[in-house]
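Appendix B. Raw example, untouched.
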Amino acid sequence: MIANLENSTHYNWGGNCDGWVLLPRADLTAIQERMPPGSSEQRHHHAKARQFFYVLDGTLTMEIEGEVHKLISGDSIEIPPMSRHQAQNNSANDVSFLVVSSPTTHGDRVDEAL
């Protein structure tokens, strides 16, 4: 089946961010996300899931284990299991990206203390 933003399950997270589940499998998920300027997720890690982020548009700041990476359109980064990380949009424009996780992150997320 062809998946796109029109026919995929949409959800909100972090108050004002969007996610569209393009591939909802237990062994592999693909989600397109949009973060408006100034938004961020809570720092966390996944016990089992390995994640791959690919920036479609804008600039994504990804902090992984204390190291900050700025990714622009066409850049990607892998996050191994147990790696503490936080996605942030520190720019003045929306950032859109794909997140591919194996296995799914459902029930696998551990939030870090604020």
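End of appendix B.
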